[in-house]
Recover the amino acids of this structure.
């Protein structure tokens, strides 16, 4: 948890430095433009006033002391503006230095992509990570897509488009070519003077071990569920838009071939119900699903070897926007084995 918290704080610090750089740069540009306009304005006003004085009839020669005083006032204004510009410049350079140090020394892989998704800059951690993903290439100046698994190519393109269109950080999970899994956090670069965004910075978080642990836990839960279903002689199912998806044990329990498709499962199941009960069972299923209500059925089921099972079938609707869905289970509550006679 502490490591995750440190990573989140680091990502926030990177984004804050990026915003500070952008604000300082914009402020410096405004001050430079204002300073230039002030110089032009002062020069023009001074020139106009001088011409006006000399064009007046019986004009007197300007007092050198007054001209000197005006010049000193303009010089003081320029000095103040220059000092403020220098202060902004130093702040900007300091912020950029801290940003570069954070970029280089970050424990997380960091890289900068241009508008064509080529890698412009990367730190040591990113270079090591991408070298493992594609040992045949040197990452710098290479397209990022060359280091991604084919299944993540489309996700990467959508992620990059979102980063360039949004001011907020974007997040996406990718698989690299060497099967490592990373979470990418993308930040758009500060816009240029004409408003263009020429790329983005990406911070990668390697979650391969975390995903492997999650998969292992999921497999353990599925194994325990299978064991429990076998002991209870039970299997679960899911109905969605006319298709039934079953747990592996339900195929075994009902002796239905595992290759049976979700579309054909219900008919394969119904074919094993005694003929005099088939219409009743079909009608109860359809009526419950049409009304969207929970249901419980009990009926006989014939196995291929002639054995008979008494089944209890339960199902409940699940709220899901735009799609009707049911979850349920089938349980053997009684079985009757046929005895061969000689």
């Amino acid at each position: 948890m502490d490591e995750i918290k440190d990573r989140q704080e680091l990502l926030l610090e990177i984004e804050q430095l990026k915003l500070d750089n952008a604000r300082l740069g914009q402020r410096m540009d405004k001050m430079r433009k204002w300073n230039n306009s002030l110089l032009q304005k002062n020069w023009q006003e001074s020139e106009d006033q001088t011409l006006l004085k000399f064009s007046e009839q019986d004009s007197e020669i300007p007092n050198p002391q007054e001209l000197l005083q005006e010049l000193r006032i303009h010089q003081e204004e320029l000095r103040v503006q220059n000092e403020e510009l220098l202060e902004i410049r130093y702040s900007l350079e300091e912020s950029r230095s801290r940003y570069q140090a954070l970029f280089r020394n970050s424990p997380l892989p960091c890289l900068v992509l241009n508008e064509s998704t080529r890698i412009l800059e990367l730190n040591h951690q990113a270079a090591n990570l991408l070298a493992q993903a594609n040992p045949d290439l040197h990452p710098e100046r290479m397209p990022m897509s060359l280091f991604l698994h084919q299944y993540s190519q489309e996700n990467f393109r959508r992620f990059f488009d979102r980063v360039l269109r949004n001011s907020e950080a974007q997040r996406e999970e990718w698989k690299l070519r060497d099967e490592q899994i990373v979470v990418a956090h993308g930040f758009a670069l500060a816009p240029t003077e004409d408003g263009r965004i020429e790329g983005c910075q990406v911070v990668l978080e390697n979650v391969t071990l975390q995903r492997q642990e999650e998969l292992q836990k999921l497999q353990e839960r599925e194994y325990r569920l299978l064991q429990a279903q076998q002991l209870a002689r039970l299997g679960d199912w899911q109905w969605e838009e006319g298709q039934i998806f079953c747990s592996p044990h339900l195929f075994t329990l009902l002796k239905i071939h595992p290759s049976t498709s979700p579309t054909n499962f219900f008919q394969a199941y119904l074919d094993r119900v005694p003929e005099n009960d088939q219409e009743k069972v079909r009608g109860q299923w359809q009526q419950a699903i049409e009304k969207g209500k929970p249901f419980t059925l009990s009926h006989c089921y014939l196995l291929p070897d002639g054995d008979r099972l008494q089944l209890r079938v339960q199902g409940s609707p699940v709220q899901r926007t735009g799609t009707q869905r049911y979850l349920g289970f089938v349980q053997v509550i009684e079985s009757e084995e046929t005895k061969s006679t000689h």
Notes: The longest strand covers residues 325-336. The beta strands are 110-114, 119-122, 170-175, 181-188, 199-206, 234-240, 243-246, 295-302, 308-318, 325-336.
